[in-house]
């Protein structure tokens, strides 16, 4: 189980770094939005590339921030049944739900969205808007984001399996295994 916990720690580290970038992007998106609005109203000038930059940052924040949110256990959860279970029951529910639903769904969505990115990359798709941006890089965010959530799901499953074996305990706030 130790090698698997090392893999889990590496995935957690990666998603923590990605989450830090997303946190910075939130501020950057707000700044781009504010500056773009000020320039538009003060100088009657606007650029589609700045609007699309905001959209691109928002897409990155949502798609990559979801794995970070999952890692920190701040995701939406239906807790009616969950809270009625013992700690061991919660671990089993998390483990089964992650392995049966979350990971397969995320991998399927990543696979299905790959073709959209690939086609866009092959043709060098550009925005239809004047002054718009290249589209294929942002289309890559969709399969990559789903893959990152699936990776975090694997990490969470490893931690739950280790906790069920009594090898670690789970810190409820940040989902970190503790020895």
Describe, in plain words, how this protein is organized in 3D.
There is one protein chain. The protein has a two-stranded antiparallel sheet with strand order 1-2. The chain has one domain. By secondary structure, it is an all-alpha fold. It is elongated and about 65 Å long. Helix 4 (87-123) runs antiparallel to helix 5 (136-164). Helices cover 76% and strands 2% of the residues. It comes from Bradyrhizobium nanningense. It is found in: Cell inner membrane.
* Order of H and E elements: HHHHHEE
Give the total of beta strands.
2
Q: Which structural class matches the secondary elements?
A: mainly alpha
The helicity comes to over 70%
Summarize the biggest pleated sheet.
2 strands, antiparallel
